[in-house]
């Protein structure tokens, strides 16, 4: 990887809203393309609202590529469902290539004032063209212990079609697949040495995590939360069933012993681990007049992912 970039003298450097704007003389710039495929795309926010900078750093030869922009439409964890965000390049929203006198880190872009000992020795600023940003959800999972591919119960390669409990949340995003107020992750272990199959208490062929009546006693497991504390996992009344066996797993726990009226049932919240991917590319690029050898009109800066836990 080698970029030729010479004969440009930096004369003024100022800082505006945490982003760098510079002026320079009319020296010739010799550069043919941007080579940052192996670098990680990073993001920082500016000092003012809705200011951002995407950047990549090539530490091998002390260079960077950055896109400084302001946008009220872009958020790293909100999908661009209405279509990609298009931002016109301008002096306020520039694409900047730089070489430095020494190695830089992310602090160079993320701090209000970059390190004073770092000198910009060469620079190319492109202010004509268009940036295209698109945010998609690249992965979603309920982290319930069941691999997403196993939750395609219909075997139709469409996870959205599998909703065992009919709560409008597909199984692969549902932490409680049978809506019994017991997390799927808690219903998987079977406590049988050497057997890693999912637990099936009543041996009806339906694993507990998909069975809304785990002991086949005719009482939905969710209704065996006698104390109404939000989970049936701690209700074990030996006077009406088998001692040491939780009521919702005990087919001898009789519904006639339940209080009247029955406690109000509050469903446990559902958390989905969601990964958002932002892709950044540029089209219709026009290099400044003193960079005649740079003829690229498109540039793909890359993509960046963030993962969040979203509870509803």
UniProtKB/TrEMBL annotation:
Domain of life the protein comes from: Bacteria
Annotated region described as Disordered, given as residue ranges: 142-241
Q: Where is the composition biased (Acidic residues)?
A: 142-166, 201-227
Q: Which GO terms describe its molecular function?
A: calcium ion binding
The family database entries (PROSITE patterns) matched by this protein are listed as:
PROKAR_LIPOPROTEIN
- Descriptive protein name: Thrombospondin type 3 repeat-containing protein
């Amino acid at each position: 990887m080698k970029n030729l970039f010479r004969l440009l003298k930096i004369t003024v450097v100022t800082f505006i809203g945490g982003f760098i704007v510079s002026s320079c003389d009319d020296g010739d710039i010799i550069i043919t393309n941007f080579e940052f495929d192996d670098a990680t795309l990073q993001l920082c926010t500016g000092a003012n609202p809705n200011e951002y900078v995407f950047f990549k750093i090539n530490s091998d030869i002390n260079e960077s590529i950055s896109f400084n922009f302001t946008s009220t439409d872009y958020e790293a964890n909100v999908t661009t469902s209405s279509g990609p965000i298009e931002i016109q390049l301008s002096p306020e929203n520039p694409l900047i290539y730089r070489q430095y006198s020494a190695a830089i880190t992310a602090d160079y872009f993320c701090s209000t004032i970059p390190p004073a000992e770092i000198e910009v020795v060469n620079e190319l600023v492109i202010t004509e063209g268009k940036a295209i940003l698109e945010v998609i959800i690249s992965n979603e999972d309920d982290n319930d212990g069941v691999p997403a591919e196993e939750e395609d119960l219909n075997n139709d390669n469409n996870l959205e079609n599998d909703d065992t409990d009919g709560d409008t949340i597909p199984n692969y995003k549902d932490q409680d697949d049978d809506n019994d107020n017991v997390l799927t992750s808690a219903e998987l272990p079977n406590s049988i040495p050497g057997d890693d199959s999912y637990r099936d208490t009543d041996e009806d062929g339906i694993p507990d995590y998909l069975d809304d009546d785990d002991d086949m006693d005719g009482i939905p497991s969710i209704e065996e939360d006698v104390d109404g504390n939000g989970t049936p996992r701690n209700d074990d009344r030996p006077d009406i069933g088998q001692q040491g066996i939780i009521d919702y797993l005990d087919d001898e726990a009789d519904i006639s012993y339940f209080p009247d009226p029955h406690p109000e049932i509050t469903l446990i919240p559902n958390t989905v681990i969601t990964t958002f991917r932002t892709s950044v590319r540029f089209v219709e690029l026009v290099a400044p007049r003193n960079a005649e050898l740079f003829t690229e009109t498109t540039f793909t800066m890359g993509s960046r992912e963030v993962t969040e836990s979203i509870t509803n």
